[in-house]
Structure to design on (283 residues):
């Protein structure tokens, strides 16, 4: 049977320097409609990157629940490092009221809250532990799982995860293209204990940017279906605005509808984690 776990990395919740860079890009490619949209959205009170209500509506309509990985980023800003802008500018604070309220709402209503480990936390136990504690403090109970920002990982990352009390990690996945990384079709246990890695199969942008993605998608789904695999999907919270990210929302809905037509079982990652570990206890 095909199993499906939907997830959303919450990298950013408000648009920031992107207004300027998207405006510049649209002017360069002479896309004046988009340039106008960037100007208008800059001066309006809309929040193009606040899409929680839309995700909630979509998932309620489809009768599914997902996992939201929240990011407690603290990397310092460095003006002369353009890559750093993406990491440090315009980020949300985990303790700001709007964020804590949406986390608590999701948590109370059947969605799962996980930790999106910050950019430098993949090899920093104290930092990741602090982020985990902050998020647990906000929702009032332990979290089960994590995924590292940018899928950063080294040989110590899972040791850190296990040591500080995560039960599963979903960082294992491709950043270019999509599908199965290094033949790991099924969840696996790197330490042969109850710590489980649940591989990520499809991410939004790498999927959208892959040529013939629906054809490749079909092959992947059939393979997972045959092997009782879990289709783990990550659609970032910000991409549900169709003006900002055309085709993203439609693709997300289409995948869910297709999996439903194949009688897939939908659950959150922590629910699948329990299923994986309980099944083995019974054997
Ligand atoms: Zn991220």
């Amino acid at each position: 049977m095909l199993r499906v776990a939907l997830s959303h990395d919450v990298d950013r919740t408000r648009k920031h320097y992107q207004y300027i860079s998207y405006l510049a890009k649209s002017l360069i490619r002479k896309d004046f409609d988009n340039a106008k949209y960037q100007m208008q959205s800059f001066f309006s009170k809309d929040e193009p990157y606040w899409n929680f209500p839309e995700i909630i509506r979509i998932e309620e309509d489809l009768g599914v629940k997902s996992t939201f990985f929240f990011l407690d980023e603290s990397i310092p800003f460095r003006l002369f490092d353009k890559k750093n802008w993406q990491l440090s500018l315009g980020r949300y604070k985990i303790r700001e009221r709007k964020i804590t309220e949406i986390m608590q709402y999701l948590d109370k209503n059947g969605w799962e809250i996980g930790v999106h480990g910050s950019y430098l936390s993949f090899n920093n136990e104290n930092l990741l532990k602090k982020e985990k504690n902050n998020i647990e403090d906000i929702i009032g109970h332990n979290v089960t799982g994590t995924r590292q920002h940018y899928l950063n990982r080294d040989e110590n990352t899972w040791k850190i995860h296990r040591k500080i009390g995560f039960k599963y990690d979903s960082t294992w996945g491709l950043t270019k293209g999509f599908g199965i990384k290094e033949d790991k079709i099924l969840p696996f246990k790197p330490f042969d204990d109850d710590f489980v890695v649940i591989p990520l199969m499809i991410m939004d942008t790498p999927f959208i940017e892959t040529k013939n993605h629906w054809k490749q998608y079909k092959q992947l789904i059939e393979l997972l279906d045959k092997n009782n695999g879990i289709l783990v999907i990550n659609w970032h919270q910000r991409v549900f605005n169709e003006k900002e990210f055309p085709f993203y929302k439609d693709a997300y809905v289409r995948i869910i509808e297709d999996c439903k037509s194949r009688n897939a079982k939908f659950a959150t990652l922590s629910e699948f984690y329990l299923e994986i570990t309980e099944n083995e206890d019974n054997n």
